[in-house]
Design brief:
mainly beta; 13% helix; outer membrane lipoprotein receptor (LolB), chain A; 194 residues; 11-stranded antiparallel sheet; single chain
Length: 194
């Protein structure tokens, strides 16, 4: 009798952990276009469970050689942004905040759902869904109207695959649900200067 209770408890524990853990592993590339630039900003999202990495150029200039890489560990509640330019890597550490609006300004993608902060309370889920790159997405409408139009966010589970706003668009161009990450993919390089 005790062994069946143990097996039942173990099954419940594994089921609960798998339900509440976030085991999704994915790599996504995005293009972001803005009304004030003729060039597209390319950025990348790497996700393995509660570890994330975001990568982009310093600017949308085609001659820009600098790269910004942000390492996020939700379990450790850390965010480390590394700017690499002219062979020098400079880092900045901060604490993870679920209301990650500052990161959204740097990388215009919601990657853990729409942030829960007060400014986002008026985001509304729109009826119906839309397919973006073969993925069925829920649509959310932003709280602010610009020229009688509001922003829209197309969410695949908790990851944004597309957003539109007057004069701006961000869209995923590649989705890999079975990426082969290196062992140190989410490790901050040792030569970063803090």
């Amino acid at each position: 009798m005790k062994s069946s209770k143990f097996i039942l408890f173990a099954f419940f524990f594994v089921f609960a952990f798998s339900t509440y853990a976030d085991p999704v592993k994915v790599y996504i590339e995005y293009e972001h276009t803005g009304k004030n630039s003729a060039n597209k900003m390319i950025f990348k999202l790497y996700k393995d469970g509660d570890k994330y990495k975001l990568v982009r150029n310093l600017s949308d200039s085609p001659t820009e050689s600098g790269i910004v890489t942000t390492y996020i560990d939700i379990t450790d509640r850390t965010v480390i942004s590394v700017t690499e330019k002219d062979g020098v890597k400079k880092g900045l550490k901060s604490a993870w905040d679920d209301d990650y609006v500052v990161l959204y300004l740097q990388y215009p993608v919601f990657f853990r759902g729409i942030p829960p902060g007060k400014a986002y309370m008026s985001y509304k889920k729109v009826e119906g869904t839309e397919t973006v790159n073969g993925k069925e997405c829920d649509i959310y409408q932003g709280p602010i109207d610009i020229l009688m139009q509001s922003s829209k966010y197309y969410m695949w589970d908790r990851i944004m695959l597309k957003s539109t706003a007057p004069g701006y668009e961000t869209i995923s161009t590649l989705i890999n649900e079975d990426p082969a990450f290196t062992a140190d993919e989410f490790t901050v390089p040792a030569d970063v200067q803090f």
